[in-house]
Design goal:
Blueprint (H helix, E strand, L loop, with lengths): L5 E5 L3 E9 L1 H4 L7 H10 L2 H7 L3 E9 L9 E9 L10 E4 L3 E8 L5 H14 L11 E6 L5 E6 L4
Length: 159
């Protein structure tokens, strides 16, 4: 693991964007993987710029939510931008809210998408430790700033 995660608190945010439902097992097989296709569509169809035009703001954010259970179950991933209020959306867009609460933040340096894959490997290693806090499985998210490392925010249960 590159560095110890940082303990942080987060306020709820609303993110509008494109979403897919998948599992970690599906993502390990290129023939069933959905995440790379979602990112490809988001970039190719210029959703960051399109969302910016309707009042979305901030860095691109990827939100993992609607967890079926734990690391073995299905979840939704939405890639998009933050919005201040409930703007009406129509397909293919969706809106998801991140959970307020305690998070551990992992920094991912290096070229994308490898830095994110390595970052999630660090997350799974960290949460496999005996003294690690329990994950909350409410919402986790990745923040992609214009400059600097990507951050993975993983929700943890308050102690």
């Amino acid at each position: 693991m590159s560095s110890e995660p940082e303990s942080r608190r987060a306020e709820p945010k609303r993110i509008v964007g494109l979403a897919t439902r998948t599992t970690n097992t599906a993502e390990s097989d290129p023939s069933t993987a959905q995440i790379a296709k979602l990112w490809e569509r988001f970039i190719k169809e210029r959703w960051s710029e399109r969302l910016d035009e309707v009042g979305a703001f901030g860095p691109t954010t990827a939100v993992y939510s609607a967890y079926e259970s734990d690391v073995t179950g299905s979840y939704q991933l939405l890639v998009g931008l933050q919005v201040r209020n409930s703007l009406p959306v129509s397909a293919p867009l969706q809106v998801v809210s991140t959970a307020q609460g305690s998070y551990l933040t992992f920094r991912c340096s290096g070229p994308l998408p490898q830095a994110i894959s390595d970052g999630w490997r660090d997350v799974w290693t960290y949460f496999g430790l005996d003294n690690a806090p329990a994950r909350a499985y409410t919402s986790d998210f990745e923040i992609y700033p214009e400059a600097g490392p990507v951050e993975i925010w993983v929700a943890v249960q308050d102690r």
